[in-house]
Design goal:
The protein has 284 residues and is an alpha/beta fold. The protein is 35% helix and 25% strand. The protein contains ten helices and ten strands.
Length: 284
């Protein structure tokens, strides 16, 4: 993995303009390296997805970006201030430079369109001059890469398992060879064996194709396996950012330690189950 910076986020804040206002993301700063997998961990509602949407300007009212910048350092050498792009530039930027696997993505496919047609839509939208035969061959190649198989191009989503649909969404996200893929809970609702297969595939694809990944989940032990570095979020702010090894072996923030201790160990002494506030006191 190189140490060239791909994305710089500086003093980034998002507020939901309701009564009273809610600070969803508070002065977040981080740098993502080219080829790196950065894990973004924290409990539900801590601001992980809001940060990801904000970086791509996918937020809708009442969400408002109140401060900060997200600068994309393109492989061409150009520095792109994402906040400064107009609507047309933003449409061209998304999916081409940065793509996203959305939360619950495996249920996002159009049920009445074939897998092949939905994959082709990416190319007809972003590569309109691409010959039809070349589009079809590229769709077939993408399915081969993610382990679904080109024979599924004519299949409908209901004919695929949950794990296969998730792989199709990953193929769709990588169709234009983006430099960054943001994955929001990409293995939620999958059984542990399929989850393991998809995680290994993401890691392998990152190695082969060289893209960076921001991997969002509340499952910190999962991130310890796949990430190079981990950013821990709490109440909209990053409270700790370090290598996965350091997060595991020597967490500095109390919240990180509590996240690590919230998952039962398969080894060690058995303990008694205590209900209510006694459980919280014991955890502390």
């Amino acid at each position: 993995m190189t140490t060239e910076t791909l994305l710089t986020v500086s003093d980034f804040s998002v507020v939901y303009d309701v009564d009273p206002p809610v600070e969803a993301v508070r002065h977040v700063s981080l740098a993502l390296e080219r080829g790196e997998i950065l894990g973004l961990a924290g409990e539900s509602g801590c601001g992980k997805t809001t940060l990801a949407y904000g970086i791509q300007r996918l937020l809708k009212p009442p969400a408002v970006i109140t401060s900060g910048h997200a600068v994309f350092h393109d492989e061409s050498g150009e520095d792109i201030d994402i906040n400064a792009l107009d609507a047309a530039q933003m449409r061209a930027f998304r999916w081409d430079k940065v793509s996203m696997v959305f939360q619950g993505a495996m249920n996002a496919l159009n049920p009445v369109a074939t897998i092949g047609r939905q994959l082709e839509d990416v190319f007809t939208t972003h590569r309109p001059r691409m010959p039809k035969g070349e589009r079809r061959e590229e769709c077939a190649r993408l399915l081969d890469i993610v382990g679904v198989g080109r024979d599924r191009l004519r299949s409908y989503p209901h004919e695929l398992s949950g794990g296969m649909r998730q792989r199709v969404m990953i193929a769709m996200a990588m169709a234009l060879r983006p430099q960054l893929m943001i994955m929001d809970e990409p293995t939620t609702a999958l059984d542990v064996l399929v989850q393991r297969e998809i995680l290994e595939q993401i890691s392998d694809l990152r190695t082969k194709l060289g893209f960076s990944v921001i991997f969002i989940t509340h499952d910190l032990p999962l991130l310890l396996e796949i990430s190079d570095r981990i950013a821990v979020m709490k109440d909209g702010a990053i409270v700790e950012l370090d290598t996965a090894l350091n997060i595991y072996s020597d967490p500095q923030h109390e919240y990180t330690r509590r996240l690590l201790s919230s998952f039962p160990s398969l080894t060690g002494e058995r303990g008694d189950f205590v209900r209510g506030s006694e459980t919280q006191e014991a955890a502390r």
